[in-house]
Structures are given as C-alpha cells and as structure tokens.
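Figure S4 source data
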Amino acid sequence: MLVALIIACEVGFWVLLGAGLALRYLAGMPRLGAALLLCEPLLELVLLVVSFVDLKNGGEPSWRHGLAAFYIGYTVGYGHYTVTWLDGHAVHRFAGGPKPPGPKYGKARAVHEWKLWTRSLAGAAVALGLLQAGIWYVGDAADTGSLQSWQFVALRLLGIQALIAATYTIWPRKAPAGTS
C-alpha cells in the first residue's frame, strides 16, 4: 500500500503542477493556479502520516518506508525549485516571457552545481531525520536495519553529487568557440 501511495503522490505532484500551470497561463486564472500549486505539500504530509501510521500499526520497517522518506526529502529539497523552473519555462512558452537563463559554462555552472548539491543536502537531511525518527519510533521492537541502510544510501548519494559538483569546479566546462 505504501508504494502505491508513493506512486500516487508522484502522479499527484505532476497533475497538480500541470493543472496549476495550465490555469495560470492557459486559462488566465493565476490565483487558482497558485492555489493548486500550494496544495502540493499536502501530498507529502499525507505520505508522512500514512508511513508512520503503518509503523504504529505494527508494519515491519522496510525499504518502502525508506523510499517514502527519500521521496519526502527530495520534495523538500527540490520541490520548490522544480515548480519555479517549470514556471519559468511555462512563462516563456505560453506567456511570451523571456527564455529562462541557465548557466552552462565556467564558474557560473560550477556555482549552479553546488547550489543543487545544497538542495540535495537539505533533502538528505530531511530523509535522514525521518528515517532516524522511524528508527526511534519503532525502537527495539523490530529490525530497523533496512531504515539504517537507507541512511547510508542517502549519505552515499550526497557524496556522489558532491564529487560531480567538484568536477565542475576543478574542470569547468568551456563555452564553444564563438559564443560569449
């Protein structure tokens, strides 16, 4: 059931996002579109509550709970960024706004990669906190090894992304000849 809810939350995220942007730019109802976009965090709240209720009702801590924690962490770290990024592209595509700038080369790209890493750090911190709360909540009554293993996965992924950001700092991409 928890995996189905995670999938439903992901689908719901994109449906709310698409409907919110469509209302803002295609239907000319920016307030209603913004209201829909503001409903997105409710999906994660439902997932969090259901995950802890599952553990409270004797559910065995498993990879499903770890995945739920990762999903919530990702949404905290990248949810607003994703909405803002897509909103900028929707303004460009449907409302005649300027093309959203994006750093592609040099120091600007390295800074961008480190900003993405800080978002991942925030998401990992949330996921680690939720996983630790689950471990404490369950206590010695059940095997919490699967939740602990997800904590190590979060740290490994954070380290990999730091290495990727570091490569942009050490070996910055250079603009092709003739571009400024």
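Figure S5 source data
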Amino acid sequence: MASHAGGVQTGAATPRAHHEVSGWLVFAAVMMIFGGLMTLFQGISAISNDRVFVATQNYIFQFDLSGWGWVHMILGIVLIVAGLAVFTGAMWARVTGVVLAGLSLIANFLWLPYYPVWAVVLLIVDGFVIWALCTGSSRGTA
C-alpha cells in the first residue's frame, strides 16, 4: 500500500474502533471470571444437596441452602459474562463489573456461616476486582 509523507496509508480499510485496556483492567477481568467460576461452583455445590456445607441455626439471614445456591449460581454466570465484557474496555462493562462485584461481595458476606474460608477468599477477590475496575484506565483515553 502506498503512503505519503504524513505517514497515513492510502487505500487501507478503516480499522474498527477498539479500546486497548490497561493491565489493571485485564487483571480485573481475569479475577471477575475466576470469582464468577468459584461462585458458580459454590452455587452448584449448594444446590446438589451434598454434605459440603454446614447448616447453621439462628442465623439472621436465614435462607435454605438451595435458595442460596441459586443466588450464587446466577450471580456466578453473570459475573463470568461481565468479566468477558471488561476485556473490551468499555465503560459500561466497568460500571457493570463494579456493581456485580459489589453484589457478589454482599452475597459472600451473607454466605460466611455456611463456608467461611471460601467466602473470605471471594470477599478478597471481589474487593480487588472493584479496586482494579475503579483505578484501571483505558490506554486509548490517556
């Protein structure tokens, strides 16, 4: 293809507009997908009625275990899809990711009596996701 002195190529097709994402957004997207998968597996385990979780008595946020399982399974699927969308670098994906990670943070806080170690790990993951989505910037906008 020919180009002239300005360095602009002539005859080239117009490239599609895409956002380059920073390392923090990639980190957030990967952690969202990881957290979504863990939340999905958590929900599947609760729904399948196996003996992984301990049912506690007199807990103020009392749901049956299968109800919590459905909440976590749906939230996990949505987190995975939103994590994939964050790879595009779109602002709507970042805002959606912050909202969903916040919801996941609340759900895992309420999940503490059933499986505390897993819930604490997911609380930390969700906190990192929110932080990375809020501080990461698109390279194209800098």
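Residues 8 and 14 are 12 Å apart (CA to CA). Residues 23-47 form the longest helix (25 residues).
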